[in-house]
Amino acid sequence: MKFKHFLTVAGMALVLALPFAALANEGGAALKHAEVNTADRDQINRGLTVFTEVCMGCHSAKYVTYKSLIDYPEIGLTREAVDELRGDKPITSGLISDLSPEDATVSYGKVPPDLSLIVNARRGGANYVYSILTGFEKDPDGKIPDGTFNEYFPGHRIAMPDPLGWLDHDEADTAVLEAQAKDVAAFLTFIGDPHQNERHAIGKYVMIFLILLTIVLYLLKKEVWKDIKH
Amino acid sequence: MLEKMMKTKLFGWIDERTGAEAILKSQLTEYQVPKNLNYMWNFGSLALLVLVLQILTGIFLAMYYKPSAALTMGGYTVAFDSVERIMRDVNFGWLIRYMHAVGASAFFVVVYMHIGRGLYYGSYKGPRELLWIIGVVILLIMQGAAFFGYLLPWGQMSFWGATVITNLFGALPVIGGFLQEVLRGGFAVGDPTLNRFFSLHYLFPLLLAAIVGGHVHALHVVHSNNPTGLDVHEGKSTIPFHPYYTIKDAFGVGVFLLFYCYVVFFNPQMGGYFIEVDNYVPADNLQTPPHIAPVWYLTPWYTILRSFESKLLGVVAMGASLAILFLLPFLDRSKVRSARYRPVYKQMVYLFFITVIVLGYCGHSAPTPTLKLIGQIATTYYFAFFLLLPFVHKFEKTKPLPEEI
User: Fold this and answer.
1) Which residues does residue A61 pair with via DSSP β-bridges, in sequence order?
2) Which residues of A, range 97-156, sit inside 8 Å of B by Cβ?
3) Which residues on chain B are in Cβ contact (under 8 Å) with A199?
4) Which of B27, B53, B138, B262 is spaced 20 to 30 Å from B107 by Cα?
5) Is-above-0.90 flag for pTM?
6) How far is the CA of A148 from the CAs of A54, A113, B258, in angstroms?
7) How distant is the alpha carbon of residue A125 from its chain centre?
């Protein structure tokens, strides 16, 4: 009887899990995998440099303030470094691009999206960012002009000009560009949810505490119920 | 511990003025519960726990959240910005917000288990008809509260989900247009919608708290069903709620918190199931997302809606699929409660559980002709399950019931 119950529960769990497994495979062109470590201070700082020197030409990250670049231990810039970075912008300002939305519309036909949450807002997250940055190819059909064809962008035609110069790069630079794309993907993953490392760290203690608590409660339950035949 | 507490002078003073001792005795230490309840009976207390968690975390979120669709830089809004401020700048705001977002899904997980248990063991049957009906009211209010809450971050899914659902009311004849306008506070989902949804999102949990009180009260009048479905009489078959079931529920809480905290701390978006990917994109009334789907706990009903070509029929079917739950106690005529002793009903109810999961899957996925057909078949069985119930007892050979539990 008990085993039958177990089978029932296991069967139900399987049925419940099926849609999850099916959905995991959804999504068209497979993205390239980017190894990112949001606890790696060096990688995030390298990504920040790529972000401020390349991405911020057009994109902003308005939820990330200059002050937070000092406060987040994963970035930990000095006050002097931040002062140099921000120029005459206030320290409470977000990382705002100097390109105005009006100028962007004139130049690119649309306003570049804010990147604070881009990793959360795209299926594939960091892999998506990495794939897009290293996805500028020649259109196999020859229809979309060079520099606006991206293998991983839905519909392939992308308004963003090849930011890292991937399309015509020398073989020798491949590793450097790939590293830059990964670093900035790591930075964007970090700022998408800047408390994630803290969350994981606290979570470990929470789980250990709950396991102990649950064991104690189970033993207590057994003790209280020991005289009940059922 | 409780007995000791009841003997103190302070408690005596309170008791003289409130009758607290009689309440504690009748509701806890002398409230009789069948001794054979299995762990499926833990989900009621878990639902209460999640309700309290949702109310507590919600109160703190409301201290920082700003219900305004006024535009800010980059196509965001004051509402979206305030949620991100909670996630980034408010001390432990991320924890409170993830607890609330994951809690919404957790609430439906435990309540769906609770309802499934009631279906399987026939807990809806006399004398517990009203207990069941109050429960269905709770489910409807929960779904409303969840729907209102999902608009608040003002992301793409918030906006388009609310647009699709409020559109449904427009399909109703005569009053449809009026209802839709009242819900939206205008001709389209906008700032007035956000404000009234926030107000209602605060109101509905208060209603829930009151009605849950009624649910528990009704339970304590008719007492718990049990896996055998037999009427139990005080004595050998029952034990007092406290300490036996308080400790068993506490153990259940421990197990639940393990799952809940794992998701909160390590996977709060749950791969886009608990917080949808598109909801990190700010609402844009000029750009419809490629695929609009409600959060997982509303998808079974969404499939029923989509299974009909006519919008009006779909809306009516969706309403009927929820309304028919009210009639369940009167549709099932069998004298035997538990599916343990009802071979036909047992198959039917298992198939019903699978059907609801299939409906949920269809509603979550982008529509394809195959999925639409599967959804229609599942919808047919969803209603067939209820409509066959009045006849099942006529040919079902029930197994012999045990004398005692």
Assistant:
1) A95
2) 111, 113-114, 116-117, 120-123
3) 94-95, 98, 265-266
4) B27
5) yes
6) 17, 17, 48
7) 5
pLDDT in tens, B34-67: 999 999 999 999 999 999 999 999 999 999 999 9
Q: Smallest Cα–Cα separation from B294: which of B317, B273, B263?
A: B273
Q: Which of A59, A80, A79, A61 is nearest to A71 (CA)?
A: A79
Residue B367 is classified by DSSP as P
As a whole number of Å, the end-to-end CA separation of chain B is 30
CA angle B182, B188, B193 (to 5 degrees): 55
Query: How does DSSP assign A124-173, residue by residue?
Result: TTHHHHHHHHT-B---TTS-SPTTSBBTTSTTSB-SS--TT--TT--GGG
Q: Which two tokens stand for residue A214?
A: 């649950």
- Give the closest-approach CA distance of B383 to chain A in angstroms: 21
Q: What is the residue type of B209?
A: A
Residue with tokens 């020649």, as numbered in its chain: A138
Decide if B393 contacts B125 (C-beta within 8 A). Answer: no
- Tell me how far apart the alpha carbons of residues B230 and B341 are, in angstroms, rounded to a whole number: 11
Q: Which ipTM did the prediction report?
A: 0.93
Domain-by-domain residue ranges, chain A?
A: 27-194, 195-230
Read off the amino acid at residue B92: F
- Interaxial angle between packed helices B369-395 and B311-331, expressed in degrees from 0 to 180 and rounded to the nearest 10: 20
pLDDT in tens, B151-170: 999 999 999 999 999 999 89
Task: Name the CATH code of domain B28-289 (choices 2.40.50.1020, 1.20.810.10, 3.40.710.10, 3.30.428.10).
Answer: 1.20.810.10
How far apart are alpha carbons B118 and B135 in whole angstroms? 10
Nearest-5° angle of CA B161, CA B284, CA A20?
45
Residues making up chain A, counted from first to last: 230
DSSP codes, A98-117: SS-HHHHHHHHSSPPPP-TT
The CATH architecture that domain B293-405 belongs to is Orthogonal Bundle (1.10)
Pick the CATH number of A27-194 from 1.10.760.10, 3.40.190.10, 2.50.20.10, 1.20.1260.10: 1.10.760.10
Which residues in chain A have their CB less than 8 angstroms from residue B74's CB?
60, 62, 111, 113-114
Sign of the CA dihedral B170, B175, B179, B181? positive
Quote the tokens at residue A163. Answer: 């930011």
